Amino acid sequence: MELKKSTKANLESKKHGFRLMGLVMVSAMVGMAFEHNEFTPIDDEIVICETVLGPEPIFDPTVDEPPVEEEVITPPVPIIPDEPDLVDDDQDVDDFDFSDMDKDIDEVPIIVPPTIIPEDPFDFPDVDPSFVGGAAAMSQWILDNVDYPEISREMGEQGKVYVKFVVDKKGNISKVSIRQGVSDALDAEAKRVVKKMPKWVPGEVNGKPVRVNFTLPIHFRLG
Q1: pLDDT at 199
Q2: How many CB atoms lie within 10 A of CB 199?
Q3: Which CATH architecture has domain 135-220?
């Protein structure tokens, strides 16, 4: 029995269609593959760039300033010393005379600066001021010139009054005050007597008269 093929079951006539369909499918797959390869690396590259490099820096435009002209300093002219006079080896040169070096050198005078004496009164001069004629003459002068206050006699006041004063360069007495007193009446009389005294012999420092502080005790005693 001979088998016959059906015209509907014959695939030979449809091979062109299957070939065309295969080409379309292969093209679609290849296109999808290209689209996948182009898209994925771009995203990865952007992420990597943002992570590693950070955001794009922003630069502020600045105005260029004109260059500052530097001041030109002219160097000083160098001083060239004069060339020394050269002497030939065969020429005779005068020897130096060192004979004066053996002579004794005169002593250098010592200049003593002047002594400055202060104007304030001295407490401890080289020479104390003194009453003309000495201590005995001064005691006698005080006895002759003192007037014992009557009120002090009535009250029985007696004792030593210490009078402080200044003897100036000419022997005059000034700045009389009571250093240690007994009573108002006796103190006043002691001051009066001292102010009435004649000139003293002034004190000295370095051989020159100076102002000196002096304290004199005057003894008031009832007989």
Answers
A1: 96
A2: 14
A3: 2-Layer Sandwich (3.30)
